[in-house]
Specification:
Layout (H helix, E strand, L loop, with lengths): L2 H17 L1 H4 L7 H24 L3 H5 L4 H28 L1 H24 L2 H5 L4 H29 L8 H14 L2 H7 L2 H10 L11 H22 L5 H5 L3 H31 L8 H19 L8 H26 L1
């Protein structure tokens, strides 16, 4: 196991998460629900099970050793994560992009990092371990960095005259809290996947991949929630028509399918590399994996925004705050790394 490798793989996964929506922006003529469902087939269904089947020669024999309660917990945690995905979009609607991301991701980071050890009654034990002070400082610094990036985003929105679709502070903050708590369901699911990890290790699966056979169930729970939400909108909203979405020219249909598939695969890859990062981090510090992923998500989201010229014309002040916030998040990862190495 390597501290540097663990942080590095988490950053690769975070970069994929931050960039996954770019291919979706190339989709034309499809409703969001239809596009999101097609991408979801690749990210939540096909990819996790393709990878699992490549790792496990006999799925029936492999999973027969796992308690049913484990599958139920993984699906439940995945469903929580799916609710978090949906409320994330609604948070943006009522708070705007920057404020919504700042509150939702900040809460997501804090809840997903600290709640699992609290539930297990191991927080005191973790706080007493070597390097725990630096690790906790790193988590706090990451939250400060996210706050600075959020402030920069708010300044950008003011300059560009961008506003939330239906700004409602009370409703938006409430949804952000729900999103921050429920989106951490994936972290809870991985924490509950111990029996599957043990079975993977017994089978001789490389340590980088031992959590992968749990992904199909965690993402399956999230898929049920997301597909149900999309189907509800498709069948209840008159402005959405699958027949119209499928009546496009064949060339455009193929183009939309390819870009949706790419977006979905990139969404899955964030957790693929998360698994590598988690496997590289010492087990007694496993609680910091979610912090590294979520702070990296904000870090690369800002970097990609700069590369794609989303901050062009906003003036130097918001950009200076953005860069400062990104540097603070980078410093947080390094502080956590020092805590892990001590």
């Amino acid at each position: 196991m390597s501290v540097v490798a663990g942080i590095g793989w988490h950053l690769v996964g975070a970069a994929s998460a931050a960039a996954f929506y770019a291919p979706y922006k190339k989709v034309e003529g499809w409703s969001w629900e239809f596009m999101w469902s097609i991408g979801g087939i690749f990210s939540w269904v096909l990819m996790p099970w393709i990878v699992t089947m490549m790792l496990v020669p006999d799925l029936g024999a492999f999973y027969s050793h796992i308690p049913i309660s484990t599958f139920a917990m993984l699906m439940f945690c995945g469903a929580l994560w799916g609710i978090g995905n949906i409320t994330y979009g609604l948070t943006m609607r009522y708070l705007g992009l920057s404020m919504g991301i700042g509150i939702a991701i900040g809460l997501n980071l804090a809840v997903g990092t600290l709640l699992p050890p609290i539930i297990k009654g191991k927080l005191g034990e973790l706080l007493a371990s070597n390097g725990s002070t630096l690790t906790m400082i790193g988590i706090a610094v990451a939250l400060v960095g996210i706050a600075i990036v959020t402030y920069a985003g708010n300044e950008k929105e003011k300059v560009m005259g961008q506003k939330a679709e239906e700004f409602d502070l009370k409703k938006g903050v409430s949804l952000a809290i729900v999103c921050g708590i429920f989106s951490a369901g994936f972290a809870f699911g991985l924490d509950a996947a111990g029996p599957i990890r043990e079975q993977s290790e017994a089978l001789g699966i490389n340590y980088l991949y031992v959590a992968m056979p749990a992904y199909g169930f965690i993402m399956g729970g999230g898929a049920i929630v997301n597909f149900a939400f999309c189907l509800w909108n498709i069948f209840t909203k008159e402005e959405i028509s699958v027949r119209r979405d499928m009546s496009l020219a064949k060339s455009l249909l193929m183009r939309n399918l390819i870009f949706s598939a790419i977006g979905g695969i990139m969404w899955y890859l964030q957790f693929f590399f998360y698994g590598w990062g988690e496997a590289s981090v010492p087990k007694d510090l496993s609680y910091i994996n979610w912090m590294l992923h979520m702070s990296g998500y904000v870090l690369f989201g800002g970097v990609i925004g700069l590369i794609m010229a989303e901050w062009k014309g906003v003036g130097t002040r918001p950009v200076r705050f953005l860069i400062f916030g990104l540097l603070v998040i980078t410093a947080a990862a390094n502080i956590v790394g020092l805590g892990m190495a001590s």
